C-alpha cells in the first residue's frame, strides 16, 4: 500500500513543478467573482458588506467568495479555515483543532466554540516524562483526537447558513487546482525537511523530488481535495468513528517510517473509540471590561481569555500604563496562568477570581517602577483581596511547598524549554449583517507531528505536547485520559456599547497571548490605528528571566527598559526575530470595516473586503 501511495503522490510532484507562477495565477483561478479582484496580497482593506483577514491570499479569497455568495461570517470562517488547511498545512488542517469566538448580530451575544484536540483514553500523566521535546513532537504519541471537523460542523449548525459540504468547496478547489508556493511555505517545508523525509507519506507530498517545492511553483494536493470531498459527502462521522478515523488510528499506531530511517518514532495511543467520543463544545466566553470596552475571549482549556483579561485588569488598576507596565502585567498574568489554568473538566480553574478586579488590584500592587525579581510567584485568586498585599515570597523558597499543597505549581511554566515558534494561525471575518468571527486554528508545531495520513493529504497534530511534560506534581496541565491540553490561543472580540469595535488574534504559541495583549494596548491605550498596532514591534514577557523581543523593539525601547531592570533577548523565531502574525478587524461606524493583516511578518497577510471603500483611511484612530 505504501508503494502505491508514493507512486500516486509522485504525480503530484511532477505537476507541482511545471507551471511558472504567472501562468499559474491565470490558469488555476477561474473567472468567478473573487477572481475579478487583483491577485495581489494587501495587508489593509477598508469597505463594506463583509471583510476578512488571514495570513494567506488564497484563504482570504475563499472566505470572501463565500461572503459574496451570501454566506455569513461563520460560513466564511469555516471556508477560510479549511482553505488554510490547504495553503498553510503546517499550521492548520482537518486533523487539528482550534478556538472560535463569534459575535452574533441577531442576538447581540458573543459565543465561543472549543474544538481543542483531546488526549486518548490511554493517556497517562507521566507519558512524556524523560522524552526530549523534539522526539515527543515527531511521534504518534503526540497526536490528539482532532477537533477541527467537529468544530466546523457545530459552528455551521449553530450559526452558519450553509452545509459543511458547501463550506469545503473553496478548499477543495484550491487543493485540486493548486496554489503558488510562497517563501513562507517553502521555508517552513525546508525547516521540516529532516523529519518529513523520515515518513514516506510526508516526503512524497511535501518533498517532491526530495526537495521543498520551489517558490513560484504550483503546489497541488489532490489527495486532500478528495479527502475534503468525501468528508463533505459523508459528514463528520466518517472521521469520528468511520473509515477515515480508522486510517488516522492506523497511522498514529504505525507511522509510515521511511525504510532505512534511524528516527525513533514512538507509536500513539489513539483508538477509534476516542474519535467516536469526541465532541466540540460551546463554552461561555471570558469577559472583562477595559476602559469601558467589553473584551471577550476564550475560556479554559485555553489560557488566552483569562491571561489577556487578567493583564488588562491589572493595567487598568495602575495609575499609568507604558511598556514597563505591559511587561510586568504580562509577567504576573503568566505566573497565574501557569499555576491555575488547565482543562476545567479536570482542574478547578479559579476563572472568576483570575478575572476579578479585586485580584487585579492585588496583583497591580506588585508592580514597582523597576522590574520585579524573576520569577513572579502566582497570586491567590480566592476572593479575599487586601488593599495591597506584601510581595509573595520567592518561589525558590517555601512557595514550592505551598503551591503543591494548593494543587498548583510555582507559576513558572514547566514547558518553558518548549520553543515558542510561529505555529498556529488566525483569521477574522465579518459579514454584511454585522456578525464577526475570530478564529484560531492549529496543528501545534509548524508541521504538526510531521506525519501525513497516507493517501489523505493532511498532517496529524502534535497537540499532546502542549501538556506539561513533568514531573510536575500539582501542575494543572499534566496529561490525563480525555483531557484537553492548555492552549494559549486568544481569539478576541471587543465590543463598545454592545457593538463590535475590534476583533484580533495571532499565531505564536504562548506568545499569542502577549501579541494580542500588545495589539489591544497599542490600539486602545497608545492611540495607534489598527494597522499601526499590528505592525508595531513586539515583546513577549511570560514570567521568564528575559523578555523576548523583536530587534526593532530592542532598538527602540531596549535602553530605557534595561535601565528599569528588564533583560531583553531577540525572539528566536523562525523566522528569527519575529513574534506572531496577527490579523484583526476594526468597525469604523456606518457599516465600514477595516481589515488588517501583517505588512511583513510571515511574508505578510491578506485583507479583503466585499465592497472596497473609495479611499482607505490611512490611520483610523477614532
Ligand atoms: N498549540 C498552540 C496553542 O494551543 O496555544
What's the topology here?
Blueprint (H helix, E strand, L loop, with lengths): L1 H17 L2 H8 L15 E11 L2 H12 L4 H15 L9 E8 L4 E7 L17 H5 L10 H12 L4 H4 L1 H9 L1 E2 L2 H14 L3 H7 L11 E2 L2 H13 L8 H11 L18 H6 L3 E3 L2 E5 L2 E5 L6 H13 L6 H18 L10 H4 L2 H8 L34 H7 L19 E7 L4 E7 L49 E5 L2 E7 L5 H15 L4 H6 L3 E2 L6 E3 L1 H13 L4 E3 L12 E7 L2 E6 L8 E7 L10
Helix pairs in contact: 1-10, 3-4, 4-8, 8-11, 14-15, 14-17, 14-19
This protein binds glycine.
**What's the mean pLDDT score?**
90
Write the CATH architecture name: 4-Layer Sandwich
Q: Helical segment tally?
A: 21
The number of E-state strands comes to 18
- What molecules are bound to this protein? glycine
CATH superfamily: Gamma-glutamyltranspeptidase, small (S) subunit
Strand content: 15-25%
Radius of gyration: 23 Å
Number of domains: 1
SS class: alpha+beta
End-to-end distance, in Å? 61 Å
Here the CATH topology equals Glutamine Phosphoribosylpyrophosphate, subunit 1, domain 1
Helical content class = 25-40%
Shape: globular
Oligomer: single chain
User: CATH class, anyone?
Assistant: Alpha Beta
Poorly predicted residue ranges? 1-37, 393-409, 618-622
Amino acid at each position: 500500500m505504501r508503494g502505491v501511495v508514493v507512486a500516486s503522490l509522485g504525480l503530484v510532484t511532477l505537476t507541482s513543478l511545471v507551471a511558472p507562477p504567472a501562468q499559474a495565477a491565470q490558469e488555476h483561478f477561474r473567472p468567478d467573482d473573487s477572481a475579478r479582484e487583483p491577485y495581489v496580497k494587501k495587508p489593509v482593506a477598508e469597505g463594506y458588506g463583509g471583510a476578512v483577514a488571514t495570513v494567506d491570499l488564497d484563504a482570504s479569497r475563499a472566505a470572501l467568495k463565500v461572503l459574496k455568495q451570501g454566506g455569513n461570517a461563520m460560513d466564511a470562517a469555516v471556508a477560510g479555515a479549511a482553505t488554510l488547511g490547504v495553503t498553510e498545512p503546517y499550521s492548520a488542517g482537518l486533523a487539528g483543532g482550534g478556538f472560535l469566538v463569534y459575535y452574533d448580530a441577531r442576538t447581540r451575544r458573543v459565543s465561543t466554540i472549543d474544538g481543542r484536540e483531546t488526549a486518548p483514553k490511554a493517556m497517562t500523566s507521566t507519558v512524556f516524562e524523560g522524552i526530549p521535546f523534539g522526539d515527543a513532537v515527531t511521534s504518534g504519541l503526540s497526536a490528539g483526537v482532532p477537533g477541527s471537523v467537529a468544530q466546523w460542523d457545530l459552528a455551521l449548525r449553530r450559526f452558519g447558513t450553509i452545509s459543511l459540504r458547501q463550506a469545503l468547496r473553496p478548499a477543495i478547489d484550491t487543493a485540486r487546482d493548486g496554489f503558488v508556493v510562497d517563501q513562507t511555505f517553502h521555508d517552513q517545508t525546508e525547516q521540516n525537511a529532516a523529519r518529513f523525509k523520515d515518513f514516506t507519506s510526508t516526503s512524497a507530498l511535501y518533498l517532491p523530488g526530495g526537495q521543498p517545492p520551489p517558490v513560484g511553483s504550483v503546489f497541488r494536493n489532490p489527495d486532500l481535495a478528495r479527502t475534503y470531498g468525501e468528508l463533505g459527502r459523508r459528514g463528520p462521522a466518517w472521521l469520528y468513528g468511520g473509515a477515515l478515523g480508522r486510517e488516522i488510528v492506523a497511522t498514529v499506531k504505525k507511522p509510515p517510517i521511511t525504510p532505512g530511517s534511524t528516527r525513533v518514532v514512538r507509536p500513539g495511543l489513539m483508538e477509534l473509540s476516542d474519535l467516536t467520543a469526541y465532541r466540540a463544545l460551546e463554552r461561555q466566553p471570558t469577559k472583562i471590561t477595559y476602559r469601558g470596552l467589553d473584551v471577550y475571549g476564550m475560556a479554559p482549556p485555553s489560557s488566552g481569555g483569562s491571561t489577556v483579561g487578567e493583564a488588562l485588569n491589572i493595567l487598568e488598576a495602575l495609575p499609568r500604563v507604558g511598556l514597563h507596565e505591559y511587561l510586568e502585567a504580562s509577567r504576573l498574568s503568566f505566573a497565574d496562568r501557569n499555576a491555575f489554568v488547565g482543562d476545567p473538566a479536570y482542574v478547578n480553574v479559579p476563572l472568576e477570581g483570575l478575572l476579578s478586579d479585586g485580584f487585579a488590584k492585588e496583583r497591580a500592587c506588585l508592580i514597582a517602577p523597576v522590574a520585579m525579581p524573576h520569577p513572579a510567584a502566582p497570586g491567590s485568586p480566592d476572593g479575599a483581596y487586601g488593599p495591597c498585599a506584601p510581595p509573595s515570597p520567592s518561589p525558590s523558597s517555601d512557595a514550592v511547598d505551598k503551591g503543591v499543597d494548593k494543587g498548583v505549581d510555582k507559576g513558572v511554566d514547566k514547558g518553558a524549554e518548549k520553543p515558542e515558534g510561529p505555529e498556529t494561525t488566525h483569521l477574522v471575518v465579518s459579514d454584511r449583517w454585522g456578525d464577526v468571527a475570530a478564529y484560531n486554528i492549529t496543528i501545534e508545531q509548524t508541521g504538526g507531528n510531521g506525519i501525513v495520513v497516507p493517501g489523505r493529504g493532511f498532517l496529524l497534530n502534535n497537540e499532546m505536547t502542549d501538556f506539561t511534560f513533568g514531573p510536575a506534581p500539582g501542575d494543572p496541565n499534566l496529561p490525563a485520559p480525555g483531557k484537553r491540553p492548555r492552549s494559549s490561543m486568544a481569539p478576541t472580540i471587543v465590543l463598545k456599547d454592545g457593538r463590535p469595535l475590534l476583533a484580533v488574534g495571532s499565531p505564536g504559541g504562548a506568545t499569542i497571548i502577549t501579541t494580542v495583549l500588545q495589539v489591544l494596548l497599542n490600539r486602545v491605550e497608545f492611540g495607534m490605528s489598527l494597522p499601526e498596532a499590528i505592525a508595531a514591534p513586539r515583546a513577549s514577557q511570560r514570567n521568564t528571566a528575559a523578555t523576548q523581543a523583536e530587534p526593532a523593539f530592542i532598538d527602540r525601547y531596549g535602553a530605557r527598559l534595561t535601565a528599569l531592570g528588564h533583560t531583553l533577548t531577540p525572539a528566536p523565531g523562525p523566522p528569527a526575530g519575529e513574534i506572531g502574525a496577527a490579523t484583526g478587524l476594526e468597525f469604523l461606524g456606518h457599516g465600514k470595516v477595516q481589515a488588517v493583516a501583517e505588512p511583513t511578518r510571515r511574508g505578510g497577510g491578506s485583507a479583503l473586503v466585499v465592497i472596497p471603500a473609495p479611499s482607505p483611511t490611512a490611520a483610523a484612530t477614532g
